[in-house]
Amino acid sequence: MITAATADTVRELERRTMLDVGDEVLMQRAAAGLAAAVAAELRRCAGRLHGTAVTVLVGPGDNGGDALFAGARLAARGVAVRAVACLGRPHAAGLAALLAAGGRLEDLPDDGRLRGPVTLVVDGVLGIGGRPGLPEAVARLAAAVDDAGWPVVAVDLPSGIDADTGAAPGAAFRADRTVTFGVHKPGHLLEPARGRCGAVDLVDIGLQVTSDEDGGWLHGLEEDDLARAWPYPGPASDKYARGVVGLDAGSDEYPGAGVLATYGAVHAGAGMVRFLGADRPADLVRGLLPNVVFSPGRVQAHLLGSGWGDRPDGADAVAAALDTGLPAVVDADGLRFLPDHLPAGWLLTPHAGELARLLDRDRGWVTADPLRAVREAAARTGATVLLKGASQLVATPEHGWVGVAVPGPAWTAQAGSGDVLGGICATLLAAGLPAWQAALLGASVQAVTARHHPGPLPPHALAERLPETLGRLEARSRALGATR
Ligand SMILES: NC(=O)C1=CN([C@@H]2O[C@H](COP(=O)(O)OP(=O)(O)OC[C@H]3O[C@@H](n4cnc5c(N)ncnc54)[C@H](O)[C@@H]3O)[C@@H](O)[C@H]2O)[C@@H](O)CC1
Ligand SMILES: [K+]
């Protein structure tokens, strides 16, 4: 699990640690970790340190200070280090250390082009004190560095992104590797910033990170977390232990959604799937999946809404499912028929446009800060909310942190993926998982499957690969020594 904290929380953690160790120590720990990461990167790309040339781009704050102290350590090991002052006056003590170690300082070139030999660039322009975007001259430099194709190591964050929201509304650096300190920041987990970080290294600088249940924290699921937490059947499990899913998805107008949701539920391992939707999707499902049943009967979780279209009795269907007291996933068109308050055991699975409609906001308000949007949706509806998109976020009224699913390739952004995901999540609810966990595991298993089968695989074909993923995850969970 990757834990991320906002800039304010990081500053508070740093303040507390500094009371114990003093303020110089943290920056020296950060610089040591950064220098080690840059040295490893130099060895990877040049095979050596001696004789390589590192250009350190520095801003006016402590992010530049980290970069300058790291530059001093590299200069002492035979690397030719040139610092370029990109914004304001560089960190005084860091600059003095670099110059004393034999490094040089240069001004930002007017044309934004770096001179001299460059093996690698360190982006120490802005860190958690940075406002998103870059002044024009620095933006030109960032573009030139990108064009030149030099390897870039970012200090804490790629400069220009928003550390707390993951937004990148203006120019920003793009790194091959980002070296962060103490704890991850939301920008490392959330697109589009995440895509600018490259590989992220976490350097321990001695912060006492105790992520409590208060707001502001993110927990990013990793593939091993998924492997550990999936509810694999045990030797004594029967179909009811795995769970019976009741699907009311698709319509005579959009029958495919019912088929796709059923594919998701069946291939995610539901004990039994009851298809309770309209006639046309029911006929299609009957022809494709002989294990699905169509009569009413015992159900342990519902899926409602995918492909309903303009269904006149949508509100009645939602109300009837609520009356059962069972958990449910409400997807797509079903989101238009919600009562004012829902139980936290219900899971809503909107994409940005549907969430905007739900909250009576513009889509742009949601996409500008998806974290804020998903939190607000959970608080307003009382339900757990999975916001689908480039980063898949889960908020629940049950705790203050937001979960981030394992990221997947952009190929899964296609019509029908959401219907399959609804079926997967309903299966996990039927197996007895709380809604937040069903959402995180469901979104993650689909992403991990897509990672292993890159390319434009249609959603039903991807659903058919879920069993292969689950078999691999189950073997992994055994290797990890997970207990059932
Ligand atoms: N506080 C600490 O104890 C530690 C901090 N560390 C480093 O310190 C960094 C934070 O340092 P700072 O708080 O000094 O902040 P930054 O180094 O991010 O820079 C803030 C400065 O940049 C200016 N600025 C911000 N956005 C701008 C923009 N878009 N255009 C132009 N100027 C802009 C601000 O006015 C301010 O002067 C962290 O990211 C990390 O790298 C590490 O040394 C670890 C310990
Ligand atoms: K930076």
TrEMBL record:
Cofactor note: Binds 1 potassium ion per subunit.
Cofactor section: Mg(2+); K(+)
Entry annotated with the keyword NAD: yes
Keywords: ATP-binding, Isomerase, Kinase, Lyase, Metal-binding, Multifunctional enzyme, NAD, NADP, Nucleotide-binding, Potassium, Transferase
InterPro entries, alphabetized: CARKD, Nnr, Ribokinase-like, YjeF_N_dom, YjeF_N_dom_sf
Chain residues that bind (6S)-NADPHX: 62-66, 127-133, 156, 257, 307, 351, 419
GO molecular function, one term: NAD(P)HX epimerase activity
This protein's record includes keyword NAD: yes
EC number assigned by the record: 4.2.1.136, 5.1.99.6
One BP term from GO: nicotinamide nucleotide metabolic process
Domain YjeF C-terminal residues, every copy: 222-473
Binding site for AMP: 418
Catalysed reactions, as listed in the record: (6R)-NADPHX = (6S)-NADPHX; (6S)-NADHX + ADP = AMP + phosphate + NADH + H(+); (6R)-NADHX = (6S)-NADHX; (6S)-NADPHX + ADP = AMP + phosphate + NADPH + H(+)
Domain YjeF N-terminal: 10-213
Binding site for K(+): 63, 123, 159
Family (UniProt): Belongs to the NnrE/AIBP family.
Protein role: Catalyzes the epimerization of the S- and R-forms of NAD(P)HX, a damaged form of NAD(P)H that is a result of enzymatic or heat-dependent hydration. This is a prerequisite for the S-specific NAD(P)H-hydrate dehydratase to allow the repair of both epimers of NAD(P)HX.
Quaternary organization: Homotetramer.
Name recorded for this polypeptide: Bifunctional NAD(P)H-hydrate repair enzyme
Organism: Friedmanniella luteola
